[in-house]
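Table S2 (text version). Query chain:
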Amino acid sequence: MVLTDTGAKLSKSLIRDGRTPPPPGTHDWMLDIATWPGDVVSFNIERARFSRSRCLQSHDMGKD
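Corresponding structure-token output:
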């Protein structure tokens, strides 16, 4: 399972099999790491950014 930049959860196998469309915010590298255009360091930075934004979204949802 992968989280998109919108916080949507997706199943890589269902999308790859064509059984469900990718949600908005899905990037090719989220489904296939080999398509990442940068190096390992930049990948880890981007992955951490998505994880952090997802944590912040979850935290903000509980404020009401």
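Notes on Table S2: The chain has a mean pLDDT of 75. The first strand starts at residue 2 and ends at 3.
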